[in-house]
Design brief:
Blueprint (H helix, E strand, L loop, with lengths): L3 H13 L14 E7 L7 E6 L10 E4 L19 H10 L7 E5 L5 H5 L2 H4 L4 H11 L5 H19 L7 E6 L1 H12 L4 E7 L13 H16 L6 E6 L9 H13 L8 E5 L7 H6 L1 H9 L4
Parallel strand pairs: 3-4, 3-5, 5-6, 6-7, 7-8
Antiparallel strand pairs: 1-2, 2-4
Helix pairs in contact: 2-11, 6-7, 8-9
Length: 300
C-alpha cells in the first residue's frame, strides 16, 4: 500500500519542483527554442514556442506555464505531456478553433514563489501570510513573473513572429492556474483570457490551511483585483481525486464571487468539475480540447 507520506511527496513535486530535464530530448516538429526569459529578481528560464505546421500567421498566442510538460514526453514530468500540439491540430482540422501559437515557459526551482498570487496572499491575516512565506521560501514573486511575461516575452514574440493583434491567452495547472488568474487580473492590457486547470486554491501548502481565511482572500481578490469581465474569458476546473479533492469548497466561493462581479457562465466564464480525475498531466490533457474550444472558438 502506498503511504500517505509518499502520496504527499509526489504531490509536492507536482506543485513545487521543476519538471524532469534530461540532457538529450528530441522536441516535436514545429518547436522553436527561444532565448531564455530573464528579468530582474527572477531566475532565467527556457521558453519553447510551438507553431502549428504549415501555418505562417498571424496566429493567436497562448502562453503556458510549466513549459517542459507540454509537448515532449522526454521532457515532461513523469513522461506524460499535456498533448498540446495534438489537441490544437485536432481542433484546427475540425475547424473548431483557428491555429494557435503556444509559448511554453519552463518552471524553475522557484516555481512556488513565481506562481503564488501576491494579491491573494496579501489579503490573508499576518500569521497565515508568514506561513505562506515559509512554504514558498520568501515573498511571492508572481507580480514580477507576470510582468516579465507581459513586458518582455510578449513584445519579443511579436517582434519575431506573426502574432494576431489583440490580447494574449494564458494557461496553467495547479499553481500555474493561480498565476494565470493573477496575470489576467494584474495585466488586463496584455492578457484577455485565462485557463486555470486544477487551480490550487488552498495557496499555502498541499492541504487546506486556514480555509476560511483563504476563501475570504479569494473572494476579495476577485472583487477588487479581477473585477468584471470587460471582454475577458476565464476557464476554471478541478477534479475530485488526489489534491483536487480539496478544491470544490474554494471553487464554490470563487464562483459566487465571479457571479457578483458580473461573470456569466457560458459567456465569459466556464467553471467545471470533472469527476474521477486527479492532479496530473493525463487528466489535464483529457479536457484540454474543451478548454481550448472555450478560449479560442470564434476568433478570426
Amino acid at each position: 500500500m502506498i503511504s500517505r507520506r509518499a502520496v504527499l511527496a509526489g504531490a509536492a513535486a507536482t506543485l513545487a519542483l521543476p519538471g524532469a530535464r534530461p540532457a538529450r530530448a528530441a522536441m516535436p516538429p514545429g518547436v522553436i527554442r527561444l532565448p531564455d526569459l530573464e528579468a530582474p529578481g527572477l531566475l532565467p528560464r527556457r521558453v519553447d514556442l510551438w507553431v502549428p505546421p504549415g501555418q505562417t500567421g498571424p496566429l493567436p498566442l497562448l502562453i503556458m506555464h510549466d513549459g517542459q510538460n507540454l509537448l515532449d514526453p522526454a521532457l515532461a514530468y513523469g513522461g506524460t505531456t499535456w498533448g498540446v500540439a495534438e489537441t490544437v491540430n485536432k481542433l484546427v482540422a475540425a475547424a473548431t478553433i483557428p491555429p494557435v501559437m503556444v509559448a511554453g515557459v519552463w518552471n524553475t526551482a522557484q516555481r512556488w514563489a513565481d506562481y503564488a498570487p501576491a494579491a491573494m496572499l496579501d489579503r490573508l491575516p499576518a500569521a497565515i501570510r508568514a506561513q505562506a512565506a515559509a512554504v514558498i521560501g520568501g515573498p511571492a514573486l508572481q507580480p514580477r513573473y507576470s510582468d516579465a511575461l507581459a513586458d518582455r516575452l510578449v513584445p519579443q514574440l511579436r517582434q519575431r513572429f506573426a502574432i494576431a493583434p489583440g490580447k494574449v491567452a494564458i494557461a496553467g495547472s495547479s499553481m500555474g492556474g493561480l498565476v494565470s488568474l493573477a496575470s489576467l487580473a494584474q495585466r488586463p492590457d496584455v492578457f484577455g483570457a485565462a485557463a486555470c486547470l486544477s487551480t490550487h486554491w488552498p495557496l499555502i501548502g498541499l492541504e487546506p490551511v486556514a480555509p476560511e481565511a483563504v476563501q475570504a482572500a479569494i473572494a476579495g481578490f476577485i472583487a477588487d483585483a479581477l473585477g468584471p469581465p470587460r471582454g475577458r474569458r476565464l476557464w476554471l476546473d478541478h477534479g475530485d481525486q488526489g489534491l483536487d479533492q480539496h478544491y470544490a469548497p474554494y471553487q464554490s466561493v470563487a464562483d459566487a464571487a465571479l457571479a457578483r462581479a458580473g461573470w456569466q457562465p457560458g459567456v465569459d466564464l466556464v467553471s467545471r468539475r470533472f469527476p474521477g480525475t486527479g492532479h496530473n498531466e493525463a487528466s489535464w490533457a483529457a479536457r484540454l480540447a474543451l478548454t481550448f474550444t472555450f478560449l479560442f472558438k470564434g476568433l478570426a
